[in-house]
Amino acid sequence: MLVTAASVQDSVAGTSLLDQVAAEHPRIRKVWVDGGYRQHLVEHAARLGIDMEITARKPGTRGFSPIPKRWAVERTYGWLMLHRRLARDYETLPTRSEAVIHIAMTDLMARRLTGENTISWRDPKKTTEHPIPG
């Protein structure tokens, strides 16, 4: 995982991320990335033994059109946003943001393993209303 400032381009951070992935997960052989990545990263990935495929919309597509492999990533972002602390950028350091992401994913995995429902802070039906005495 690599958390960077929003001003860092994907193609710039990609080299560091590929090096990290190759070192920590040597069995990974295929990755899918969006159009923000450039050909030099595909070549760098190939030198590391990783087949990098750039996923893109079909030419001529207009409006919203989900791309299957990218949709899995967007869905994961949606699950992360169920954690209130990640819905806004409260953290000042990328390492803190990374730690909160680890906590959120651990919570998600634990809920799936135990069969508990995920409680959303956004769902008004789940809030407990306390009647005003009087």
Concise structural overview:
With 134 residues, this protein is mainly alpha-helical. The chain has helices spanning 10-24, 39-47, 68-80, 84-87, 94-114, and strands spanning 30-33, 51-54. It has two domains: 10-58, no CATH class; 69-114, no CATH class.
Describe this structure in words.
This protein has 2 domains: 10-58, no CATH class; 69-114, no CATH class. Residues 127-134 have low confidence and may be disordered. The longest helix has 21 residues, at 94-114. Strands 1-2 form a two-stranded parallel ribbon. The chain has 134 residues and is mainly alpha-helical. The protein has helices at residues 10-24, 39-47, 68-80, 84-87, 94-114, and strands at residues 30-33, 51-54.
What structural keywords apply?
single chain; two-stranded parallel sheet; mainly alpha; disordered C terminus; 5 helices; 134 residues; 2 domains; 6% strand
